[in-house]
Specification:
There is one protein chain. This protein folds into four domains: 69 residues, no CATH class; 129 residues, OB fold (Dihydrolipoamide Acetyltransferase, E2P), CATH 2.40.50.140; 266 residues, no CATH class; 268 residues, Ribonuclease Z/Hydroxyacylglutathione hydrolase-like (Metallo-beta-lactamase, Chain A, 4-Layer Sandwich). The protein is α/β, with parallel strands linked by helices and 957 residues long. It contains 28 helices and 24 strands. Helix 10 crosses helix 11.
Length: 957
């Protein structure tokens, strides 16, 4: 620990900041006390010096205080409006006029324009004078006409604007585990959305020329100009990809293309990071060498170019991290002190977290630093543990880097994205070298050439185009292997910590394996040459096939370690002897920085100092480790295979738990998801089977001729809400998918579900509505080989001994070989299900109307097997429409709880006040509403039925 004080300081800083972000004040101080005890124990055991222990404890406390201070300051300057908005149900909005400076790039997508404003004045509609505040706002403008896009394209960062619109709070999470937009914006110090209608609501004018925002605006303009050159050089299906690859512009990426890259774990090539910075510096350094610049001037030019490249590529956390590391590395290399990448990484992390502690929650920040640290620490032991094969050594090195990167990023990948493709390792091995070493440089060169020689730029773009076609073909082929795509529930944080602990044990084990390999020990060399370890072979001089020339050393007797320094109490060192007794002992390298204690040992020659212990007679050529008792070494050697098997078993158990976290859970659940105006109900049976009833849908109101309004990646409730929620809950396959009827607000999101999650069988109402989304869904189901069944009263499905699904409506199914009837009005044909879980009953009614309710209620025992007592939960039909849920229906079933799935502030006025009045008149004890309560969850065990809502106080976020 004492060798890397900055690394441990940074680690404790991260721990302190994370504790303050996730714990209450009492928890932070408890964590601080635990760290104090750990530091004291390490100091007493000699693992850490007392000054280092004190410094680490100080880092934890300072980081916690720093984060608490940042949280205290991260509040809105409009507390009265915040209190009024949070106190209203649904959340209130306020008509205001805000004036300030644009502080972000202006994004235009379809008929939507968005940018961030640092407001210095906000005036409410009924106020005589504006408030002088400093408030960061996210402005969203909805354009009325296509020509308005050309006007908004001239807005840029640094402009002064006056915006009139509705000020409202961002939406919080309304589903368990769902995306919390309000928390996300708060981490960027944004507390309000300002929504404006039409370009007339925005008055923009140029701001000061030399403000920070104006300078960044010029960088945005250059970036946009370069992006336009990419559009000219590459086909439409490749321009967005090349802009993301070379410039970090991801707004133009094809959504389907990006999803394929994401499934295979290849999106890191589209996020500007260390790989891109390295290629940039390598190319620029080569150009400067061709210009015959001196070493010092080359370093200076590279150092000055890094910040420009970071700004030009968007300054995301990953590229900022890479830029800081590159600058620190260049400074250290120029000073001749570039020794340890971990110190550079730790310095970059500290600088970024001190500047903005909220970066710690950024996914890009976490992945960038963890993967980089994993490569620095994990690749050397893995590479040394593998046999050296000179002819294929580059492939072995590439495999080591890819394997370590996959192992380190795996926990965060399943935590945030809940999927892992089994071909991800192969895809990265195959495509990342090709993209980074061929396509990306060609793209950069073609872009540079476009600025100075447009005709020549096409020569460089042509091979890149063919390389992209090859890349897209391989990605599409690999992504089609749907059986190899695995879905993982979001693991607990303690599991992630255990995974990294197991990887640390594996690294220590590989170090032990490497230390026992004979080829890593020094071999006899000619007189005057040191016996360098074989892993130093990679430091070869240009044009030489053997080892690099090293200074000659005089022959001398074998050396002993310094007093108090031995492989036992300095794990990073291992003594290496010279078999012929004629060479000095050289400390074996461990892939880490040279140690100030071991460096003199490597260079010492001549007789041993008198203060050193003398070697026993006849032991000059004997390994130091051999002078100990052979019994412990033999014992350790026999235990090594067992320890390796234990580590592999531990990793296997961790993987099994993460993949089947609820294997022993026998709780049944009905979860009514909040997907806006629509239905989506997820059922889990006691044996772990899953049923999904409907999947919501996103309604589009675009008219013919308004295609320009369509966004590049429009919101789609199935892809953006339902599928992520199912995956976060570990739904690996859907045993029964029910289409209650074919209206868009019930099936619009199911196409994404069928594309993303395997479906074993599909049940639908036996009619056809000739809409594009319905036909596309059935075509997809048939292409996937999913059995499709028409529903009919009396059908049952029993997935296990404690669950039963009974169809109550429609009355009859489609006869075999018969014609499927076409029905435009689907509500009266909705599938009605009676769900039984541990003898608790749930009535799921689709969108039936009062006529169907009357038929079912008067049919008695002929059609409906009504429970002897009250039904437990009724899903209110048609989102609470006034034409459903009659008093007769409620009297027949006598529900103990009712749940209404409706969208917040929906245009239909659901749930209707008449329905709510009828529920109260029927004395229904519990009424749940997704528009007010968010997701509603029912848990059923042998002992009872339990309900909870995501928004406990029933106030919409």
């Amino acid at each position: 620990m004492n060798r890397r004080p900055l690394v441990w300081f940074a680690a404790c800083w991260v721990a302190g900041s994370a504790s303050a972000a996730s714990l209450e004040a009492a928890g932070v101080w408890l964590a601080c006390g635990a760290l104090l005890a750990l530091a004291a124990a390490l100091a007493l055991l000699g693992r850490a010096s007392r000054p280092l222990a004190a410094v680490c404890l100080a880092a934890f406390v300072l980081a916690a205080v720093h984060r608490m201070w940042a949280d205290e300051r991260n509040v809105t300057a409009l507390p009265d409006l915040l209190a009024a908005a949070e106190g209203a149900s649904p959340s209130a909005s306020f008509a205001v006029e805000a004036e300030g400076t644009i502080v972000s790039a202006v994004e235009i997508d379809g008929d939507r324009v968005r940018f961030r404003v640092m407001a210095d004045a906000i005036r409410e509609s009924d106020a005589a004078a504006p408030r002088r505040v400093r408030e960061r706002l996210l402005v969203l403008v909805r354009l009325a006409a296509q020509p308005d896009r050309d006007i908004t394209a001239r807005w840029q960062r640094g402009d002064r604007v006056r915006v009139a619109g509705e000020l409202e709070l961002p939406a919080g999470a309304t589903n368990s585990g769902g995306f919390d937009y309000r928390r996300y914006l708060r981490s960027q110090r944004i507390h309000w959305l300002l929504k404006a209608e039409g370009i007339g609501a925005v008055d923009a004018a140029p701001g000061p020329n030399w403000s920070a925002a104006a300078l960044l605006g010029r960088a945005d303009a250059v970036r946009g100009w370069l992006g336009a050159r990419m559009d000219e050089l590459y086909p439409d299906d490749q321009a967005g990809y090349m802009k993301g690859l070379v410039l970090g512009i991801r707004e133009s990426l094809d959504p389907e293309q990006f999803r394929q890259f994401s499934e295979l774990g290849l999106t890191h090539v589209l996020a500007i990071s260390g790989l891109h910075v390295a290629v940039f510096l390598f190319a620029l350094g080569g150009l400067l060498r061709l210009l015959r610049l001196t070493r010092e001037r080359t370093f200076t030019a590279l150092l000055a170019a890094v910040p420009l490249y970071v700004l030009l590529t968007g300054a995301s956390p990953s590229v900022v991290r890479a830029g800081i590391m590159a600058m620190l590395g260049l400074v250290a290399a120029r000073m001749g002190r570039l020794k340890d990448g971990l110190h550079v990484l730790a310095a970059a992390a500290l600088a970024m977290l001190i500047w903005d502690p909220f970066l710690l929650a950024n996914v890009s920040f976490q992945l960038s630093f963890l993967v980089t640290a994993g490569l620095i620490v994990g690749v050397p032991p893995l590479r040394r543990a593998l046999p050296r094969r000179t002819k294929i050594q580059p492939l072995i090195d590439l495999a080591c880097v890819t394997i370590v990167a996959q192992a380190v990023s795996f926990p965060l990948s399943i935590y945030y994205f809940n999927q892992f493709h089994l071909l991800s390792l192969f895809a990265n091995l195959l495509l990342v070298p090709f993209i980074s070493s061929i396509v990306m440089p060609l793209g950069a060169v073609s872009l540079i050439a476009a600025a100075i020689w447009p005709a020549g730029a096409e020569w460089f773009a042509w091979p890149a185009v063919w390389g992209n076609r090859l890349t897209f073909g391989v990605v599409g082929l690999l992504a089609e292997a749907r059986a190899l795509k695995t879905i993982w529930a979001t693991p607990p944080v303690i599991w992630i910590a255990a995974w990294y602990g197991a990887l640390a044990l594996l690294g220590a084990y590989l170090n032990g394996i490497a230390s026992q390999r004979p080829e890593l020990h020094a071999q006899p060399e000619p007189a005057g040459r040191p016996a360098w370890p074989r892993e130093f072979d990679r430091f070869t001089a240009p044009g030489r096939s053997g080892e690099r020339e090293w200074p000659a050393f005089a022959a001398g007797p074998a050396t002993e370690p310094l007093p108090g320094i031995s492989p036992r109490n300095a794990p990073g060192l291992a003594a290496v002897h010279s078999p012929n007794g004629a060479e000095p002992g050289i400390p074996r390298a461990t892939g880490q920085a040279a140690d100030p204690v071991t460096a003199p040992l490597a260079a010492w020659s001549g007789p041993a100092p008198a203060s050193w212990s003398a070697s026993p007679a006849g032991s000059a050529g004997e390994p130091i480790a051999a002078r100990r008792s052979d019994a412990p070494a033999c014992f350790r050697k026999r235990l090594r295979p067992l320890s390796g098997a234990g580590i592999v078993l531990l990793l296997g158990l961790l993987l099994a738990y993460a993949y089947w976290p609820d294997w022993l859970d026998r709780t049944a659940r009905l979860q009514v998801l909040d997907i806006g105006q629509g239905d989506a109900l997820l059922v889990r049976t006691p044996s772990g089977k899953h049923l999904l009833i409907d999947g919501g849908g996103t309604v589009s109101f675009h008219k013919p001729g308004e295609e320009w309004r369509t966004r590049n990646d429009p919101f789609e409730v199935g892809r953006d809400v339902v599928v992520p929620l199912l995956m976060k809950r570990g739904v690996k396959e859907i045993d029964l998918l029910v289409l209650s009827h074919l209206d868009h607000d019930h099936i619009g999101g199911l196409k994404a579900v069928v594309e993303s999650i395997p479906v074993k069988r599909l049940l639908w109402n036996g009619t056809v509505k000739p809409t594009p989304e319905a036909l596309a869904l059935f075509r997809l189901a048939l292409d996937r080989g999913i059995p499709v069944y028409g529903a009919a009263s009396g059908q049952t499905w029993q997935p296990d001994g404690h669950s039963r699904v009974t169809v109550l409506w429609p009355a009859s199914a489609v006869p075999a070989g018969g014609t499927v009837p076409v029905k435009e009005d689907q509500n009266s044909s909705s599938v009605v299900l009676l769900l039984e879980l541990y003898e608790r009953t749930f009535l799921l009614t689709g969108d039936i109307d009062a006529t169907v309710e009357r038929l079912l209620a008067t049919a008695g025992g002929e059609t409906v097997r009504r429970p002897a007592a009250n039904i437990d939960v009724m899903k209110i039909a048609h989102h609470g429409s006034r034409y459903s849920t009659s008093g007769q229906w409620l009297s027949y079933w006598r529900p103990l709880a009712a749940v209404i799935s409706a969208g917040r502030n929906n245009m239909y006025g659901h749930p209707h006040p008449d329905v709510l009045a009828r529920l109260r008149a029927a004395s229904v004890p519990h009424i749940f509403r997704t528009d007010r309560d968010g997701e509603v969850q029912f848990a059923v065990t042998r002992s009872g039925l339990y309900a909870r809502t995501v928004i406990p106080d029933g106030r919409a976020p």
